Amino acid sequence: MHSTFKSLFIIFLPFLFLIISCKNDRDIPLKVIAPTSLQFITIDGKSTAYYEFFLINSGLDTFKISQLSVMDSNEKLVYLTLKKESLINSFSNYSNNEETKNLQINPGDTALIYIEFIALNKEIESIHHQIHFESGEVGKSENLTLQSNSTICHFLDPIVVGAPLQSGIFASIYEPSWEQGHRRVIYAIDGTARIPGRYAIDFMQIDSTGKYVNGDENVVANFLGYGANVLAVAVVVVASVRSDFSESATLSEHPDYFAEDATGNYISLKIGNRQFAFYEHLQPKSIRVKPGQKVKKGEVIAALGFTGQSTGPHLHFHVADADSPLGAEGIPFVFESFNWLGSYKNFEHFGKSKWQELDDKIPLLLINERPQPNGVIQFRMD
Predict the structure, then answer these.
(1) Three-state secondary structure call for residue 152
(2) Is the dihedral angle over the CA atoms 148, 149, 155, 158 positive or is it negative?
(3) Which one of 18, 97, 219, 375 has the largest count of C-beta atoms within 10 Å of its C-beta?
(4) Rg (CA), the chain
(5) What integer pLDDT is reported at residue 148 of this predicted model?
């Protein structure tokens, strides 16, 4: 699978990204690829962008990455530096050898660095990147630096959607650093590799003590959110529906699914030009809409379920640039409003104890924001 990804990256990336120019005296066969532009959204009051930085070794030397810096294109201020442990945690090598922890890129390898960049100043117009690395064998290596052209920063109004679920307490489960999280899962569809879940969130309902199940955790119907009403996030037209999945009564009976069936039952809504909202893992026989149907904002369109690739009942929600759950790029979005109750700072405590409340324990109303990783929220039903 990894060797397939290497060839796929080379096919699709030149159309989406800007290749970095080399500022050394000689040609270096390390193709370093960065986005041409970034769209920032607000998370916990901070302007944040998620993106990937690709490296393709088309030469015969081995390269070892030592540092990546994000800098202002005009002032030359350094906003973010990844090195040592932080670089290791952000680095993936799609080679057969999977030499990830040593930050090594062998000949023919494709690797990438996942970046979550917080821009404290909205006046930033553009950024560039510097990548520091060593080339050659140990003892004979030389230190080299490549620098990118500018990446434009956009602080325009993002895609804004309404509540996808009715009233209740929900954990917004995601974490950019999780190796198996949506943010880092790449799908190859029709010869093109994409990250549809770059901004995906899994919503699980919990009670006031932080529990997500009543009784036997193996029983699907015991999950608090199971069967919860799923809502249209805008006045839109239904783009597509899949409703052929059945559902097991227990977690232990849940079958394994291949990637093409990961979504389970799903609905996609066309919310704008090349903007589609996806609702996944829906309950069998709960989908109330069909393709081409116009729906109202807040209208019940399905029920939260346990179909497809899922470890427990929840609603998977994301926005992408095409009507394909796996064959589209995930794009940023925010919710109109929600009450922020707190967060799970250590996700190992999820389901075992209450979340960490805000300092004054008073819910905070957030407007046009994205819930923070593993935050606890209540959607507002205006």
Answers:
(1) strand
(2) negative
(3) 375
(4) 22
(5) 82
Cα separation, 115 vs 118, whole angstroms: 10
How many whole angstroms separate alpha carbon 131 and alpha carbon 129? 7
Distance CA 77, CA 153 (A): 15
pLDDT in tens, 350-360: 999 999 999 98
Burial of residue 22 (CB within 10 Å: 0-12, 13-18, 19+) is middle
Q: Are 50 and 38 in contact (CB under 8 A)?
A: no
Cα distances (angstroms) measured from residue 346 to each of 91, 169, 175, 378: 22, 18, 11, 20
Looking at 284-363, which runs of residues are DSSP E strands? 294-295, 300-303, 315-320, 333-343, 356-357
Distance of CA 202 to the CA centre of its chain: 11
User: What 8-state DSSP symbol labels residue 223?
Assistant: B
Residue 120: strand, helix, or coil: coil
For 374, which DSSP code?
A: T
pTM of the model: 0.90
Please tell me the distance from the alpha carbon of residue 145 to that of residue 143, in angstroms, as a whole number.
7
Using DSSP, state whether 349 is helix, strand or coil: helix
Please report the domains of the chain, with CATH numbers, ordered by start residue. 2-154 (2.60.40), 159-379 (2.70.70.10)
Task: Report how far residue 175's alpha carbon sits from residue 372's, in angstroms, rounded to the nearest whole number.
Answer: 9
Read off φ and ψ for residue 319, nearest 5 degrees. Answer: -120, 140
In this prediction, residue 28 carries a pLDDT of: 81
281 pLDDT higher than 90: yes
Check whether 95 has a pLDDT greater than 80: no
pLDDT at 26: 57
Nearest-angstrom CA–CA distance, 19 and 2: 22
Q: Are 179 and 112 in contact (CB under 8 A)?
A: no
